[in-house]
User: What shape does this take?
Amino acid sequence: MTSMLKNRKVLSGAHAAAEAMRQIDPDVVAVYPITPQTPIAMKFADYVNEGKVHTEMIRVESEHSAMSACVGSSAAGARTMTATSSNGLALMTEIVYIASSTRLPIVMNLADRALSGPINIHGDHSDAMLVRDSGWIILASENAQDVYENTIMAVKIAEDKRVLLPVMILQDGFITSHSAETMYTFDDETVKKFVGEYNPKYSLLRTDNPITMGPLDLFDYYFEHKRQQVEAMDNAKKVIKEVFSNFSKLTGKTYNYFEGYKTEDADFIIVAMNSSVGTAKFVADKFREKGVKAGVLKIRVFRPFMDEEVVEKLKNAKAVAVLDRAASFGSHGGPIFHDVRSAFYESDKKPKMLNYIYGLGGRELSVELLNKVFNDLIEFDGGKSMNQVQYLGVRD
Amino acid sequence: MNLKELGNKKIRLSPGHRLCPGCAAPIIAKLALLATDYDVVVANATGCLEVSTTIYPYTAWRVPWIHNAFENAAATISGVETAYRVLKKQGKIKKDIKFLVFGGDGGTYDIGLQSLSAAIERGHDFLYICYDNEAYMNTGIQRSSATPFGASTTTDPATDKKPGKMEFRKDLTEVIAAHHIPYAAQASIGFLNDYLMKVKKGLETKGPAFINVISPCPLGWKTDPSKTVEISKLAVETNFWPLFEVEHDKWTLNYDPGENKKPLMEWIKVQGRYKHLLKPENKWVVDKAQAEVDRRFELIKRRCELDKDQ
Assistant: This one.
């Protein structure tokens, strides 16, 4: 299959997001600067001021207003995008929930950064985990290429009439957002055709058919509306698959909720999200060279979380290590571990499972640390007793 | 425009909503929608007007309406208005639409001030109407920065030890005027034509416009619900709430009672929130409030006189 990804470029993750946004050419972008998201906003602002997009940019005074303006714009029927990081996401969280419950297909890039405090500007997933239950679809990106492709697919997923939910695209702050990589992009026309024209079902600007958006909703209807949101997320499971399949026709690649790297016959598998997937693949290859059947399971879709698929991909392994770049204080392990472990409750076949909390505040995840993880899995499978939840690369 | 003409127009905020009898907020909103023939889209900050005019599956709004949250009505309308401009440029929208925001003093003076200030600085084309009932009425009459000196609220109640709020109110209209906004004004439904004229001007203005309207709250002010319009008038006649306009930095006083100025006590004595001020030991509070009202009125008047011949 020939790929339409034919333009070879060297882009950082942030610029890959901005490039996808340029090609999508949304109606409105409302954005506020925060490290490490800033290169997305700055690059896109260049496109706006150079007349390369038709987008109106709202240079707001806070992330709270960024998401608030996005809600207004999307409710008025405009294709709307934004981007943020860390504390910016925390500040807008109130409206992040309102965006999804108002069923507005906003697309947001998130350059993941550790939440304060203490203040830290580097990458971890505590920001994404803060909004894990906000009702947004969450796509994760291993590298700049994924950021680019996920951003384009996000528009189609969000705007599907069966879904109408906002989509967030994760990339690791600095590690991905600021590292230039070789990647491939489509021609503008290909993206334009793929995303198509946005025809909203409702709009505040249809004054001849006035609608009320965001009314008070008490115990007699609120629950039903939340139930509909659950339904929309369930519908998204099917729609995401369709979008993956249509996008495959352009790229020649296959996409899935969980993408296995040498997992089919693997005895030992690392489950990871965002940039650590790349490092884990390198380490898995080194173990393969030593005759160990090692593999990596990459999370592409974190929400909705497909239990059946993760079980299918992991059930034949002897031992699995789930990597979490965020702590979940007071519970057993990190948030991804909770999901993966819980998915196996009904399964007859269960691999042994360890959880590693790693990389908080941007702490490097080295090859040596991942060597330890695979070695742990081998020893754990051999009967050595071990703490199920461990902290990787921390000075205890 | 007179009342008779208004009576023949289509009412765009329907009756049947659940605001209290005598509440000025729906009068302010209904009149604003009557003052213009444009198609409008309304954004509403969280507050009495929002919760009482919509409860799913009902709505009192016959115009497109959006409520997002408490502190972000101005940011929300920024998004709606920007969407309008870009879609109009693309030819997807043909007609002219005006954008109107209603927020209470809590959502405007306090929690929403940042969002409003920024939307004005960015120059979006909208009219923001603040219905100022001088406290957080929706949550049960808590003090706001609009609450006047000496008033009793549930978070700063008048007791034997403390006669209510001991700080003077924020002058938001002046804060907004300091943005060099194309149009800012203060109004009262006790002066109907003045209010309608200001709404028309605000909507015709290209760029941001702001009108601050005194909004008697029978529940919070402990006033007679049938006296809302009279009390709105009294606010102006005592110089407690001066009527003025600021058009591109040109200040105009719309009403000066001159020698007919009523003492502040006329305003105080009809409101239960000031009941404690009628006690002799609290006379100093009334005197201090009166002195501040006079001082602030003179400041505005002086400013308006400076601009008179511009």
User: Anything to note?
Assistant: The CA atoms of residues 45 and 57 of chain A lie 8 Å apart. DSSP finds twelve helices and 16 strands in chain A.
